[in-house]
Amino acid sequence: MLRRALPEVLAGEQNLGRAVRWVHIVDVPEPDKLLRGGELVLSTGLGPGLDPVAQRRFVRSLADQQAAGLLIEIGYTYKQALPPTLVAEAVSRGLPLVATHRATRFVDVTEAIHGALVDRRLAMLRHAQEVGDRMTSIVLDRGGLDALLVELARSLENPVAMENIAGQLVAFATFSASEQDVLEAHLRYTRARAPGQLQGHGWLAVEISSGGRPWGQVTALEIDSPLSAEDRTLLERGAQALELGLLHEQHDEQLRARARGSFLVELMHGRIQDRDAARRAEALDFAPRQKYLLAGALGWRSERWATLAGTPEEAWATLMPAVRSGAGDGRATLLGLHGGSLLVIIAIAETAPSDEVLSSLARELRSPLKRRGLSEADVAIAFGGADSGWTGIGRKLDRAANAVHASRVTAPSLWRDARHGSLVDLLYTLRRSPELLAFSRDQLGPLFEERDQRARELLRTLEAYLATSGRKAETARALHLTRQSLYLRLERLERVLGVDLDDPDVMLSLHLALRALRLTQSLSPDERL
């Protein structure tokens, strides 16, 4: 239809590739605030008129409003040609300016272009719906996140990457480019991206949620073909399917983990015989080739689980695939949920693994956790020892489980040795004992409640004195006190508690009472004395 109107491009040739979002007829002298951007403006010339100043103002207004272009019909206001001032202003603004030399009804032009735009939009929606349907089928067929990303990359004709909320790469799929090219492009995009940014030069992202919480985002990388406006719609459909896939994977993983956890808890409590335990383990896809089993546990030391899921258990369900891969190297691994802890049995080839072997294994288990921003201060790992029988490994698993709970009152470490019980482990086991509470109160007297500043000061002094095994010079340095000031505090402690701090039995009793007090202060209310 426009070809029949004999169009002639007079300005803005370099911008003829602009997308036309809509068509609008404008024939008023001041078109300010009439456009939203992307419109092809049709005019008979009444708007710009015959005044050169008005012509420049008209073109400037359209350019400022980001019009796609201006089409003016010759023969109505301008009889032979468009005014030079109008053309010059369009040239300076880079605004595509088209003159038509044959009369054409504007209603026919708008109807034709709007019809094409609507048809194209419907086609885009149909395509997006088809992509969404295919990805939903993959979810229902339990195809997994990798299959979803492959389908999304095929639909976008570009590689896609899936990142968690910390911006770390979780999975990706290529289209035509090599994996190396995709990883390099992803690294460049990661460095250039501002926090919260979802679009930039060469990439487009859509956020992903899981269980009502932000989980991360899926990103399309412009490597194999140009990204278009339609791709955002496709990416949004892909993000919806990935959210469903995450829910399915986490739900299934959590159910399986609970089943394994129930088995491991029964082992810990000695409720299963070796023969039955072997059959149960095989039914849970754990059939180790190695002779010995190593018992371990992972537990939360901080509240960082809340950045991953709604509960500590759900957070472990999210992390379990990565933890299992961390314990890889061909080792058979059985993971199970037990409250807020993750119980682990790993098949090994030796009956008494050295500290070096256990340290290496702890680093492997921590590697995927660190990629999620979880350090030794957030997650504790404990090993309870190795055994060749299920009954024995159950007892060692119980030790490891208690050790990760008790670790909240100890300093962060690569791993805790639960092969031999410690004082902290014993106190944690007795944490609900009324006798332990009574003992601590009797030993610490008025210091137990720490009601005033002086009581807190004396309790800190006693703690430092016990930590140095009664060495006064070291205690004074630790508290930044002079020797004389420390002697005065120790004398006050002896008067308040009615004890002799030179008596070894007194020192042992106070040390036990103080450790019990600090233990319960670090536990949640339902775990305390």
Characterize the structure shown.
- It is a single chain.
- The protein has 529 residues and is α/β, with parallel strands linked by helices.
- The chain folds into four domains: 3-112, HprK N-terminal domain-like (Udp-n-acetylmuramoylalanyl-d-glutamate--2,6- Diaminopimelate Ligase, Chain: A, domain 1, 3-Layer(aba) Sandwich); 128-249, GAF domain (Beta-Lactamase); 254-418, Alpha-Beta Plaits; 430-527, PucR C-terminal helix-turn-helix domain (Arc Repressor Mutant, subunit A, Orthogonal Bundle), CATH 1.10.10.2840.
- It is built from 16 helices and 15 strands.
- It has helices spanning 52-64, 84-93, 106-140, 145-156, 179-192, 229-268, 274-283, 312-326, 355-371, 390-406, 423-429, 434-444, 453-467, 472-479, 483-497, 504-521, and strands at 7-11, 22-25, 39-43, 69-73, 97-100, 160-164, 169-173, 199-200, 203-210, 213-221, 292-300, 333-338, 341-348, 379-387, 416-417.
- The strands form three sheets. It has a five-stranded mixed sheet, sandwiched between helices.
- The longest helix has 40 residues, at 229-268.
- It is elongated.
- The model has no long low-confidence stretch (mean pLDDT 84).
